[in-house]
Every structure is written in structure tokens, then in C-alpha cells.
Amino acid sequence: MVAAAVVENATRRTRSGRPPRGERAAKAVGVPYIVRNIPTYDILSEENLEKIERTADRILAEVGIEFRDDPAAVEHWKRAGATVDGVLVRFEPGMLREIVSTAPAEFTQHARNPQRSVRIGGSNVVFSPAYGSPFVMDLDKGRRYGTIEDFRNFIKLAQSSPWLHHSGGTICEPVDVPVNKRHLDMVYSHIKYSDRAFMGSITAEDRAEDSIDMARILFGEDFVDRNCVILGNVNVNSPLVWDGTMTKSLRAYARANQAAVIVPFILGGAMGPVTNAGAIAQSFAETLAGCALTQLERKGAPVIFGNFLSSMSLRSGSPTFGTPEPAIGSMVVGQLARRLNLPLRCAGNFSNSKLPDGQAMQEGLMSMLSAVHCGANFILHSAGFLDGLLAMSYEKFVMDADLCGALHSYLAGVTIDDNTLAMDAFLQVGPGSHFLGCDHTMRNYQTAFWDSALSDNEPFEKWSEEGGSTDIATRANAAWKKTLAEYEAPPLDIAVDEALCDYVSRRKAAMADAWY
After folding, report:
1. Given 3-state DSSP classes, what are the helix, strand and coil percentages for the chain, each rounded to the nearest 5?
2. How far is CA 485 from CA 186, 255, 376, in A?
3. How far is CA 430 from CA 420, 433, 436, 439, 474, in A?
4. 18 CB-contact burial (10 Å; exposed 0-12 / middle 13-18 / buried 19+)
5. For the CA atoms of 88, 91, 95, 99, what is the dihedral angle to 10 degrees?
6. Span 447-483, pLDDT tens digits
7. Confidence band (pLDDT; 50, 70, 90) for 16?
8. Given pLDDT bands bounded at 50, 70 and 90, which one contains residue 317?
9. What is the pTM for the complete model shown?
10. Distance of alpha carbon 463 from alpha carbon 456, whole angstroms
11. In 3D, which of 363, 427, 61, 355 has the Cα closest to residue 347?
12. Which of 267, 283, 290, 261 is nearest to 378 (CA)?
């Protein structure tokens, strides 16, 4: 059952006896992750799931997947018994399923604060910020390239939210730092400004190794060899190509016993078929091959079965996000991942909107609910995603985090016990009266309903006269500024901090700046 957030008593109260909405939300103490108490939504029959799996098997056996610029990966496949023709690898049906059977169904990613460690797999759900945007935006300055200051700001916002569980990875690209060095600043920033679990770099093998080395400084080399402390999110070059940049990073994480998140990026009609079933079969084949490669590198290494289905406008060729077809496709991907007994990363809060507006939240909710119902365990892109992932929005970040708060209650399901059945309330109130002041209500009013920190539930007159007729984006603008102003960094051991800074300085000094 989902653990409820604990809400402390505030000193200042409203006439109802409750702390003001914003103050209640600010004092919420979040759980480290969610344990879902509602079932997954399984939409396909056994017969149809088998049809998708057989199609994926045919793709793997008859078409194959190319593994480019990574001879070591190709050698792995040769030793495993795959059919290799140059960089093209074909697989007999069932081969990859057998290989991935050694991967754990569930694992812990440890945080530097043990109370923030997350459990990935099973019935567990972890919300993580959006990932990879080159731009950032807010209502004051508009859209602009991200900087290391923006990157740190988003880490601080995530750390401050009771509804997010993970610090994320490349929350935005800090383009004011050289490309070949920014991963050092990003990993250090996650460690310095958050005490939650985090992700490392995957853009080159040496950057992946740097990320893991910094985790070893933080946790200790022996601990890292025995436990997962860092994730690396690697993408297939769909259709049916794994390039060496990704497979070398994938193998670096697996070699160190750290978890790679294996994710195709399929835009229906471009990098995959326009039909949902065909795109799902392709996604399954590509992801399965990546997951299996981690086990050939190190048997038993944790790995996350990932998925990123998206549609596109067939009139313009533009990607579209938050649409119904990928959302319902996520349900099927969830079923397939559970048949493999692997943790799942799927869907997120996707939107094509250019502003934190109604379109953004409509599309975001469509895709976020699909993640919740498909059984995703690690939900990347839970907060901040705008403009087809080209921009991280400060306002949408806190709006999405607020939605994640609602999803905590949604995933809790319905508790059935003597208190929730409320028979004592019926006996006290009787016919024709109301429940507002009865004993049962007074016992439960602080925890009965989730309470948004951003939504306005006041009468129109109060909203217009006292609240200034603000919309939610305007309220979110004030909220992120207040959060950053009040942020306090979690304590970090001085010796560890010094060792990390020394490592970053030495690595930066060892290479010239590269702006490419």
C-alpha cells in the first residue's frame, strides 16, 4: 500500500483550522518512492501478445540489428551464438529472452541519503524529472539556451519537491560549459545539490566512466561494485541500429554493475511504422537486444526495459507528443516487459505545447496516466517537458510536480477498513444532516484528500478580487521562485566534496575544451 505523505502542523491556520494550502504543501514530507496499490491495465490477450512477440522474433531473425562502431559488442554476439555478418546481427527466436533471464526483476538504486534510495521494479513507481532539453524557458525571460545555473536550479526544484523521487540526469543541457566537460559539472551538481538517486552521462564511453568514477568517490568502490548507485539512459538509433557511442556506454554501466536504461525512440511513420502494433514489435526487438547486451557484458547487472513511442504529424513531419496512440501502446509495452520480468521505464509527461498552458497539461496527463496504468517503474520525463522535449519549463516543472502529488493519491487506490467505511459517521450524522463537523471528519480532514499547492478552488469573486485573477502558470512562476529562494543544500561530507572537486579539476585539465 502506498505510504501517505506526512503533513506537519503549521502554526498559522485558516478559519477552518487548516494551514493555508501553500503552507500545507510546503511542509509535506515525501515518500522515497511509491508502492502502487492499483492494478496495471492489461489490454491485450495472451494470443495477441504472442503475435507481437513472434513479429519481433521475425524482425530479429530475418532483418536483424546493426551494431556499429563497437567491435567488442559484435564479439559478444558471436560468442553467444548469434549470426553475425559484418555489423549486422541476427538472433534465433528465444535467444535474447534466455540471455535477459539473468537480469534482476527488481533492484535498489541507492542514494547518498539512504532514506532517499529508490526501489525499481515490481510494484514500485519512481518519478524523475524530464531529460535532455537544450532550451529552458520561464514566463519572465522566455525561451533560451540552458546554462549550468539552470541545470542546478532544476536539481534544487526536484530536491525540494515531496512528489518527485529522483534527481534525474541531463535535466537541461548546460551549453555554457564545453561539451566534453559538462558531464563532470552535471554529475557533481546532482551530488552536491541533491541527496537523491541520480543519472550519469552516456554521450561517450569515457564520460560514462567518469560518471561511474564519481559515484565510486561518493559511495566507495566496493559498495558500487555490489550495488546500483547510478543509471545511464541509452537510446537505440531506430530503426534497428545500435551505434557504438550508445553500446560502449551501455557496456560501461553494465561492467560496473550499474543500470542501463534501454530506450528506443520511435516516431511512428519516421523511425518506425505508422501502425501501433508494428511500432511496438520493433520497439520490443530493439530494447530486448540492448537489455541482452548488458547481460553479456556482466551477467546479473541491473537493467531497465525502456520504451519511447511517439506519433508524428503526417502533414508536416513534426513529432507529436501526448497523443492517444502512443499512450495506449504503452499499455502493451507494460505487458511485454512483465512477461520478461524486467523493470520498466515507459511514457512520461509529454507535450508539444510551447507554453505551460491547457494543451501542455492535456497532453501531459494523457501520457502520464498511460505511464501509471502500464505499470512503469521508472518514469523519466515526469516534470518540466515542453515543446516536444526541446525546452524545460520552470513553470511546467512545478505544475507537473504538483500533478505527481495527485498521482501519489491516485496510486494509493481505495483503503477499506473500519475508519474508511465510516459507519460511526453515519450513526452520528443520521439522515438529512451533514458530515462537515462530525467526529469522523475531524479525525480525517488533514489526510482525507490530496491538496494541490497550485490549484485555485476559491469562489470566482475571491479569485478575482483577492487573488488577482491569476492562472496556474502565474502561480507556478511565483512558486518556483519561492522554492529556489528557500532552498537549502543537503549536507555533504567535506572530504567527499573535496575529492569530487579534485577529480573534476584533474579531468578538465587533462583535455582541451571541445565545443561541438
Report:
1. 45, 15, 40
2. 21, 41, 33
3. 17, 6, 13, 13, 44
4. middle
5. 10
6. 999 999 999 999 999 999 887 899 999 999 999 999 9
7. very low
8. confident
9. 0.94
10. 8
11. 363
12. 261
> Cell numbers at residue 297, please?
557484458
Query: CA separation (Å) from 472 to 235, 387, 390, 467?
Result: 34, 18, 22, 11
Beta partners for 232?
Answer: 260
CB-count burial class (<10 Å; 0-12, 13-18, 19+) for 9: exposed
For 309, the enclosing helix (H) or strand (E) is: strand 309-312
pLDDT at 216 over 60: yes
DSSP line for 237-283:
-SSSEEEHHHHHHHHHHHHTT-EEEEE--EEBTTTB-SSHHHHHHHH
- CA–CA dist 99, 254 (Å, integer): 14
The per-residue pLDDT for 20 is 47
Taking alpha carbons only, the member of 340, 264, 262, 265 closest to residue 297 is 262
- Measured in Å, how far apart are the chain's first and last C-alpha atoms? 48
* Alpha carbons 173 and 393: distance in angstroms, whole number: 13
For 264: left if phi > 0, alpha if psi spans -120 to 50, otherwise beta; the answer is beta
d(CA 244, CA 28): 44
Torsion angle, alpha carbons of 377, 192, 502, 130, to 10: 40
Q: Which of 247, 213, 145 is nearest to 515 (CA)?
A: 145
Give every strand in the sheet of 124-127, ordered side by side. Answer: 34-35, 124-127, 378-379
Name the grid cell of 214: 564519481
Give dist(CA 24, CA 405) in Å, integer: 13
Q: Cell 503552507 sits at which residue?
A: 23
